[in-house]
Amino acid sequence: MKQxxxxxxxLTISDKGAAGEREDASGEVIKELLQEAGYQIERxxxxxxxxxxxxxxxxxxxxxxxxxxxxxxxGTGFGPRDITPEVTKSVIDREAPGISEAMRINSLSITPxxxxxxxxxxxxxxxxxxxxxxxxxxxxxxxxYILSPLKHGLEILLGRxxxxxx
Length: 166
Known about the structure:
Layout: E1 7-13, H1 15-18, H2 25-36, E2 40-47, H3 51-64, E3 69-73, H4 84-91, E4 94-95, H5 97-108, E5 121-124, E6 127-132, H6 136-157
Parallel strand pairs: 1-2, 1-3, 3-6
Antiparallel strand pairs: 4-5, 5-6
Helix pairs in contact: 2-6, 3-4, 5-6
């Protein structure tokens, strides 16, 4: 039996997904990669691109459930309803820009369109929130790139490791 080191929540932001008009392939990719990495997925939810719905779910997962990691997918592009980064910034206490910068750098090595991601990352209490892109391919590329360093960051956040340990 695989030992679970961290708890996680997956939040898909999609009008069509929330309405049941589109399968959430990106959320499934996140679920698969997190489970392979030993995370215990405590919550998976889909909400429309609406500030109140996104904020309510981020606060529920962080403040009420106390999850270690929340990964969002969707709502990070240039569309008029893409507000995930703005809502994330409104709920975090501290930004963790290196995570999102690393994902963009990795994405840019694959496609110039990587520069169009507006995703942010940050900490609320003892929860790390990371905005992933919306497409399943970009989610896989981004999450595979950051998963190993995320483990160390979470260990530090939760007091299980010091910043100098590698």
